[in-house]
Amino acid sequence: MKNLLFLLFIFSASFIQSQTKASIKLDSLLQISKTQEGVSLISTLNEISWEFKNSNIDSALFYARKSIDISKQIDNKKAIASSYNSLANCFDGLGVLDSAQIYHQKSLDIKLQIGHVEGAADSYNNLGIVYDLKGDFQKALENYFKSLKIYESQEVEFGKVPMVLVNIGIVYKKQKEYDKVLNYYKRALKIYEDNNYDFGIVVTKGNIGSVLLNVKEFENSIKYSKEAKELYAQLGYNRYVPYMINNIAIAKDSLKDYKQSQLLYKEAIALFRKDRNLYELTYAQIGLAKSYVKEHKFKEASNEGKNALKIIKEKGFKEFEIDAYKLLASVEEQLGDYKQAYYYFEKYAIGKDSLFEENKTKTIFELETKYETEKKEKEILLQRADLAEKELSLSKKNIQILGLGVLAVILILLGYLFYNQQKIKNKQLQKENELKDALVKIETQNHLQEQRLRISRDLHDNIGAQLTFIISSIDNLKYGFKITNDKLNSKLVGISQFTKDTIYELRDTIWAMNKSEITFEDLKARITNFIDKANTTSINTVFEFTSEANIDTEKTFTSVEGMNIYRIIQEAVNNALKYAEASKISMDITKADGNIKIQISDNGKGFDENEIEYGNGINNMKKRAQDIGAEIVIKSSKNRGTSIVLNFKN
């Protein structure tokens, strides 16, 4: 069943007035436009176009095009978008849907370009209506839900949300999901009632009346539709009156009051033709033709159906084309024109994409047989025996074809079931294997973590304790034997310091081993401790350490990656302390182009890269960087210091 589309586009007035007031408003707008220019004139012209859309479509087109010309002259994108919308509304009223779609899309593109969010929502709604009229329900819903999402997230006029809710309900109605339809209609109706918006209330109730046709509550449908019809007339929106008349005609037809329903259909058709609303016109014509069929007025039904089909094909109303073919196939069969009946049914079958359904195949064969029989009637009179033999042969062939068709369908179904079952089985096996792999991986990781913890405990308890014992023994030697030999004393101090440094290195290693992964925050804290220690032990050198705030401190590294980064930094700082004779060492951590850059630079004596051969320290830094997939760049020149840059992905 068909219902009234809620065609409230962007420039509808906030409150709908009566026909007399609407006329007064239109005269006022025309007078105002004579004194305006620029954006204010464009706004008035678009409003004039909207007012004329419901009474004089030619005038509506004139003012919409005039608005576009002025908008382009002043090069105002927002005004151009609004004017395109007005022109699209006019084409929609005429049923020229391709043009309406083009201009609504142009309007949307400009609104998105200039960031006009609410305007974009308006255009999404308008495009949804056009796609709905063209029968592309998926695209209609996509655009409606985009519009609804924006409206509900913005502070907009109260009427915009229920407008989209009703439009969504209309699409679901065409898909026969009536529970969803009533849900969306009731949501919209509550908003209108809460805001005492009469026009929204009457339109929504009219649509509910239309849904009642689908659930066969015809008396209630007539009641709602009559109320809506009267209120539309009172509000001055005569263009919508024939929608209600058509709904009443459908209800009367369903109640078998064919005489009254046909009169109402004709009244609606006349009004739709007057408004040049071709989409609704063809729908009403098909309804009248079906009513004629019920009274066996097949000639009248054929004429009405063919008139509708001509417009449907010209305008691309796909939703009605299949219905028209089906109707005409049945009518022409009743009129005895089996050739035409076969032609229309074949068109219907192709359109429904169901040629292999058993009932449809049977019907096609029956029509084809009747057509062939009619064609050879004269020949039958002369060659009855020959014709009987041919008919028998044709019947056998039909049975064979039908049998092969049924067999093919059965084989296809069996093949599909087998394929589907195998596919499900393969998916289950794949999931089981993935689960096994995940369990093995977890078990391996747990085992590795246990090994790390065991080794780190051994290092701490055994080697750590032994190194501490060495330091203690050296201190005892120094103080117990009162060593006065400066050279020996210096040697012992060096061994003690080396042992302490080894303990610090061992602690770093244990720290890394105890973690399955190291966050950037952990690494940063470790580097800070190292810099603080170096700053304490190096009196003549000033250290600077900076880190940008936009670096993701939650980024994680494996323990190997984290330790390699730390060792590279440690080696770079130690080299600067040992060889550069620098008064200042800087470390900067920055982020650029998705990469983290760590730069260690000094103002020391530097070196000529072409004159020296890199030692183990620098080579080890390069090897560590390569192991973690990072890039290390070393730059130095004499008396200008050295810079070491480590780059890795964030």
TrEMBL record:
Reaction it catalyzes: ATP + protein L-histidine = ADP + protein N-phospho-L-histidine
Any single GO CC term annotated in Swiss-Prot or TrEMBL for this entry: membrane
EC number: 2.7.13.3
Pfam families according to UniProt: HATPase_c, HisKA_3, TPR_1, TPR_12
Coiled-coil ranges per UniProt: 364-391
Residues of the Histidine kinase domain: 565-650
GO molecular function: ATP binding; phosphorelay sensor kinase activity; protein dimerization activity
Keywords of the record: ATP-binding, Coiled coil, Kinase, Membrane, Nucleotide-binding, Phosphoprotein, Transferase, Transmembrane, Transmembrane helix
Family matches, as PROSITE patterns: HIS_KIN, TPR, TPR_REGION
InterPro entries xrefs: HATPase_C_sf, HATPase_dom, His_kinase_dom, Sensor_HK_TwoCompSys, Sig_transdc_His_kin_sub3_dim/P, TPR-like_helical_dom_sf, TPR_rpt
TM region(s), chain numbering: 399-419
Designated name of the protein: histidine kinase
Natural source organism: hydrothermal vent metagenome
